[in-house]
């Protein structure tokens, strides 16, 4: 899953990015609302983490502008004050949740996962494709009760395919989900990761099929 962090405190942003990447999230980070507004128009994100107080344009103003344009990406506000006024401002502008600084790393990750789960399905606890299982609360893939040892980009690609299970996913969509703006993936990068994922799934009834010229699809293997 891919997140956009908008935070002007460089040290805090660095800490959050490293924390989230360790949790297998793909993360882009920008220090101001203007750049975030431009990027969000060209990239798709699963969650936006938005500081309440930013230089030039506030996080609340950016949130309101995104909502007016019909951008419904889940937004978690980062606020330095837990006052009732701040909370009301966050939700009034269209925020989905908020966390008060300084926050615990576990709380931040748990709130992000809850937002993603809410988007996918209000009641979903897990997704299955044959004997491949995906748990929303841990974002873990398991086969025969054994966790799949996936690297971050392998995880991001399989996660995207699982969330769009049964639907064709283009190579461009997988590229966007697996790489941040700072990365320079090669043209063949997705093919390489798909090859690795097929090895992980070789004993599973879940399979990744290639639809030439269209993309990839995750489905249950025909028996």
UniProtKB/TrEMBL annotation:
Residues 124-220 form the OmpR/PhoB-type domain. SMART domains: REC (SM00448), Trans_reg_C (SM00862). GO terms for cellular component: cytosol; protein-DNA complex. GO terms for molecular function: phosphorelay response regulator activity; transcription cis-regulatory region binding. InterPro entries: CheY-like_superfamily, OmpR/PhoB-type_DNA-bd, Sig_transdc_resp-reg_receiver, WalR-like, WH-like_DNA-bd_sf. Keywords: DNA-binding, Phosphoprotein, Transcription, Transcription regulation. Residues 124-220 bind DNA. PROSITE patterns: OMPR_PHOB, RESPONSE_REGULATORY. It comes from the Bacteria. Residues 2-116 form the Response regulatory domain. The modification 4-aspartylphosphate is found at residue 51. GO terms for biological process: regulation of DNA-templated transcription. PANTHER family: REGULATOR OF RPOS, TRANSCRIPTIONAL REGULATORY PROTEIN TCTD. This is Transcriptional regulatory protein tctD. It comes from Paraburkholderia piptadeniae. The gene is tctD.
């Amino acid at each position: 899953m891919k997140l956009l962090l908008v935070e002007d405190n460089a040290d805090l942003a660095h800490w959050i990015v490293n924390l989230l990447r360790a949790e297998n999230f793909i993360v882009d980070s920008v220090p101001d609302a203007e750049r975030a507004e431009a990027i969000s128009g060209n990239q798709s994100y699963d969650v936006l983490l938005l500081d309440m107080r930013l230089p030039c344009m506030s996080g609340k103003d950016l949130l309101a502008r995104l909502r007016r344009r019909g951008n419904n990406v889940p937004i978690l506000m980062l606020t330095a004050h837990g006052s009732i006024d701040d909370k009301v401002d966050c939700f009034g502008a269209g925020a989905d949740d908020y966390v008060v600084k300084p926050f615990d790393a576990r709380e931040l990750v748990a709130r992000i996962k809850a937002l993603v789960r809410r988007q996918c399905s209000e009641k979903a606890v897990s997704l299955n494709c044959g004997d491949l299982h995906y748990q929303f609360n841990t974002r873990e893939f398991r086969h025969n009760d054994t966790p799949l040892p996936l690297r971050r980009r392998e995880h991001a690609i399989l996660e995207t395919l699982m969330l769009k299970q049964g639907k064709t996913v283009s190579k461009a969509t997988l590229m966007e989900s697996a790489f941040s703006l700072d990365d320079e993936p090669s043209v063949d990068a997705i093919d390489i990761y798909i090859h690795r994922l097929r090895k992980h799934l070789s004993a599973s009834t879940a399979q990744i099929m290639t639809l030439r010229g269209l993309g990839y699809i995750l489905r249950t293997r025909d028996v």
